[in-house]
Amino acid sequence: MAISSAFSFLSDRKRPIAVAVILFIVLSSLFLLFSPAPSALPFFSSPSSHLSSSETSIPVSSNESPPEAPTSVASDGVSSRATADPVPDSADAPPPTTTTAAASDGVFNSTAEPPRPDAAAAAGDSEAEVPSPDHALPTPPVEVEGSGSAGNNETTTGVSGERDGEWQGGGGGGAVEEPVELPSWELCEVGKGVVAADYIPCLDNVEAIKALKSLRHMEHRERHCPEPRPRCLVPLPERYRRPVPWPLSRDMIWYNNVPHPKLVEYKKDQNWVRKSGNYFVFPGGGTQFKNGVTAYIRFIQQILPNIQWGIHTRTVLDVGCGVASFGGYLLDRKVITMSLAPKDEHEAQIQFALERGIPAFLAVIGTQKLPFPDNSFDVIHCARCRVHWYADGGKPLLELNRVLRPGGYYIWSATPVYRKDQRDVDDWKAMVALTKSICWRTVVKSRDINKIGVVIYQKPTSNSCYLDRKNNKPPLCSENDGSRSPWYTPLDSCLFPVVSSSGGGNSWPISWPERLNMKHTTTFNNSSIQFSQEKMDSDTNHWKDLVSEVYLNEFAVNWSSVRNVMDMNAGFGGFAASLIHQPLWVMNVVPVDQPDTLPIIFNRGLIGLYHNWCESFNTYPRTYDLLHMSYLLGPLTKRCHIIEVAAEIDRILRPGRWFVLQDTIEVIGKMEPILRSLHYRTTIVRQRFLVAAKGFWRPDSTGSQS
């Protein structure tokens, strides 16, 4: 009535219009008053949602505490949180970003020779790039409710659980029930003689090594994991930079990233490595490669045409690899090599290899088995690897026999093959007797133009020779000896049959690359678990679709700067197989508490190993560009603390690179705040994937997070 009298001066036709206008104004005012944020209005969008990561990042000096960025949940279901981290000073910092969506990933200007790798650096290194809008997955999502990003009170829905055909060892649940108290991160305290920036907890346990009763069998180079498990961070080397991009990195790396010059002097006459200005340069030489590794590889092909690099031979184990030039140059021939050496006086050789972008792993043939399945490698190579194969009853060579595929070759280039001094002659006689006793056939013995000798042996493909031996030494292993798992298992003193009593064997796979998707009908001697072909095929198709549609298109990952990749729960190797055409390699890790699928991975022409993720991995810090974990964290955190897992992930991952977690939203909700406490930039995609970019932040030496 009051409203009507207030508008009595208007005509009857105009009065309803005026009332409608005033009601709209009143209701809009009430909506603005009680709305939680302007972004809640349907016609309002945050300007930052239209910007690339480089446009929205906040520059922070290395002495300032970065502000915590809020979490935003976009209409496409992607939750993103970017925590700015301090960047190194101008001498050490990654290349300056531009205002484009993909900033430059080049390396730094330098007057040093050889020419800078800057020009060939891959474009783009967008650590917090905003993902593209959601695309439909091949199968409908399963709706679940759970907490969203830590600190966000909204309930989110997304994809969870196992899709048809997806490898999900251990299941998708099992998250820690209690809230995780965020740590106050500190730098690791290391023992005397250990370089803090190179700390490997299970190989640098000084107190445990001091307590060893014997060092005769290289016990001090084996794993001795500390208790309690580390929850600390490894510092960066002074003036650390993002690595030189592949393929230039095969031939040159930044000196400051691996500042260990001892090999330059120690191997100066053998062309392993030399220092040139701000770089280490790798000429492709070696102790046995007088004319370079390319000529050496060609020489092996000439004396053994059946080796057929990249066709018949796909997987190689290089024992005592040096700086891994042999494996690095075999990549040109489509051969993937696991370069192996201990952490010893040959300072940082495996660290050099991984910095170069070449697959490598720290291990020693001492008292325990290597973390590989039986009958896995097509070829094993040793060039002056300084292992006494005939020692301790021949156990070291029996270990090579265990991991060499039946019909595979052992290439030995060492002084006993061609020198005639008494020690070499005695070593040669011992090697002849041992190889004969294990039925290895000498295929060829030859010398190159520099008179460097090579002998090539072949492992038998049947048990007939074993059964025909006059002396049963070494004896055949019993198939009832128990588990064939090599994890923390003593070396065998017996020969395991090539063909089991049930008739199952290990026939040679078909040629590469067809073997990647071969029909895996082989029965594996060391695995009691049977996998259906349908499940493996489904797993392959699942990863192919998921990687092409989501990983390569929606993740805030600059794949052009990714070289070293680790799949922390590899299953059948489907993730690695889906990336086979990318210029990268994948270390496939099968956790020791998951089904044993590693023989299948090797049969596909991929490489990997066993590991327990409650312990540190045998690699140097900052050696991988991308760590991938799929449905493992929940079960894992029932055995060890999630902070210990996060600390190991941080140790392995390079600054400026990525950790990708696929899991339930509940498990993601546990890990995300821990990674943000490390100043990682995090993005949640489809309520199923956590993509986290590591920065250059480290706590100071007193433990304060500056």
Question: How does this model look, in words?
Answer:
With 706 residues, the protein is an alpha/beta fold. The protein contains 18 helices and 21 strands. It has helices at residues 2-6, 15-34, 53-56, 206-210, 262-266, 293-303, 325-330, 349-355, 395-403, 415-418, 422-437, 464-468, 533-554, 574-578, 598-603, 633-636, 642-652, 665-677, and strands at 72-73, 79-81, 144-147, 155-158, 252-254, 274-276, 279-281, 315-319, 336-341, 360-362, 377-383, 404-413, 441-447, 453-458, 564-567, 585-591, 608-611, 624-630, 653-662, 681-685, 689-693. The strands form 4 sheets. Strands 1-2-20-21-19-18-15-16-17 form a 9-stranded mixed sheet. Strands 10-9-8-11-12-14-13 form a 7-stranded mixed sheet. It is globular, with a radius of gyration of 29 Å.
Largest sheet: 9 strands, mixed
Based on secondary structure, the structural category is alpha/beta
Strand order in the sheet with the most strands: 1-2-20-21-19-18-15-16-17
Strand content: 15-25%
Average pLDDT reading: 79
Q: Helix count? A: 18
Radius of gyration: 29 Å
Low-confidence segments, given as residue ranges, are 1-7, 35-79, 82-167, 170-176, 521-528, 701-706
Count of DSSP strands: 21
Distance between the termini: 66 Å
- CA-based shape: globular
- What fraction, in percent, of the residue positions are helical? 10-25%
Protein name: Methyltransferase
Enzyme class: transferase
Subcellular location: Endomembrane system; Membrane
GO molecular function: methyltransferase activity
